Each structure stands twice: as structure tokens, then as C-alpha cells.
Amino acid sequence: MTGRRDPVAVGAVAVLVLVTALAAAAPVVAAVTGHGPDEQLRDSGLSPAGIPVGPGGEFWLGADGLGRDVAVRIAYGARVSLVAGLGASVLAVVVGVAVGLVTGYLGGAVDAVLGRLADVALAVPFLLLAIALVSVTGPGLGVSVLVIAAVSWAPVARLVRGEVLGQREREYVTAARALGAGRTRVMVAEVLPNVAGPALVAGTLLVPTAIVLEATLSFLGLGVVPPTPSWGGMLAESVPFYRVAWWLVVFPGAALLLVTLAVNLLGDTARDAVGPGR
Questions:
Q1: Computed from CA positions of residues 79, 84, 90, 93, in that sequence, does the dihedral angle turn out positive or negative?
Q2: What is the CA radius of gyration of the chain?
Q3: Per-residue pLDDT tens digits for 265-277
Q4: I need a surface site. Which of 100, 142, 178, 203 has the fewest CB within 10 A?
């Protein structure tokens, strides 16, 4: 069953298109509501007791503990999640494919050295690496992307290495060598196209993980710097109010769940499509 005929894949794509459109249209959402993403509307967004107001005509998805519009902040937060998810995944795939291609094709000492490097990357705890890097550079979206990519490239490298090991003795590789093609040309022009499918699927499945990891860093204060909206940061800000303001947890959490679920389902569909027929 192709992705175009699979209702699950169609639904996943529809969700991702909507979220991407929401992220792109975040300034439009702010203009329509009349509320900026960091604007504190304490008179209208908070009750006399200091409790955030719930969803309604002025605040579509309610206000947060500082009187900011939750709907506007979710729209802007989608930008952070998409940039972190796609950026970290692309970086991890590029590094992982390069390392896996070289180690799988060359083998020997190169395989041993880069293989141990991948082992180190797999062994380093994610939060420990994040804390160490943030303590040196300070928090930020770029730092989050680097940390997530640093702990994500090794599985891709191992996957690609295994695929290359199965390809390097095939007839087309032997023929290319016989025609005088160098190692670099054989790896890039011959082997890489035949292992690109699994690598792309692995990259797709990395996106939801990267989005969740970015939300985790923001929740812990190691991600984007407030008041920049992020879904993880919004969940952290909801902690003092979750008993009286359910929308502060439900709406950012639902956005995070929908996006990660949609990308996971799309990645599963791509894996099923690539697996049997490659």
C-alpha cells in the first residue's frame, strides 16, 4: 500500500501541513487576536485573584500566568519545535550517513576509530551533555539542535554502516572498481544512492524524538531562552497553575502529541514502503 493510498499517512501529512501553516502564519494569528507572543495582558488575561482566564472570545485558548495569549504562543512555539526537529534530524543524518558510509566501505582502522566514537556518542547521557554545553555557551535553540544531533547521529551511522557492508561487494561496486573508479566516487556515486532510502527513513523517525528532546530541554530551562515561546517552556510555566488552569497543560501538550504522533506515523509508512522493495 503506497503512502498516497494509506489514510494514516494522509492524515499524518494533513496534520503536519496544518502545523507548518500555523507556524508560518504565527504573525497573522497575533495580528488577528491583537496580542503579541510576549505581550502581558494582566488586566484582561488574569482574574482579580491573579488566575489566568480560560478559553473564550478574546483568548481563544485562554491566557497563561502572565496574561499572555496561549493560542499565539502555541503558534510561535510551533516554529521552535519544527526548526529543532528538522534541524537536528538533518544534521544527525548528514553526520551519521557520512560516518556510516566511510566506516562500512573502508573498514579496518577507520571503522575501529569511528566505531568507538559512535560508542561514546551513544554512551554520553543526553541531559549531562546538554548541561555541560549550556554551562559554556548558554541556552538557546542552536545549542539545543547541536545537543540533540550529537546524541542522534550514532544510530544512523550504525544503520548506514550495516547497509554499506551489504552493498560493497555487489556486482555494480566491483564493476565500478574495475572501470577505475576511486573510493570516493564509488562511495558517493554508487553505494550512497543504494543506502539513502533507509537513512531517510531513519531521519524521519528522528524528527519526533528531536521535537520531544527540545521540549524537554525547554521544560528544564536548558532550551530556548524565555520569553521566546516553546511548547516545552509553556508546559514548564503551567506547573504553578495546572490545578486551576487546565488549558495551560492540555493545549501545548496536545500540540506536542499531535506533531510527534503524525511524524512517527509518516516515518512508519515510509519504512514500510522502503523496506520490502529496496
A1: negative
A2: 22
A3: 988 888 877 764 4
A4: 178
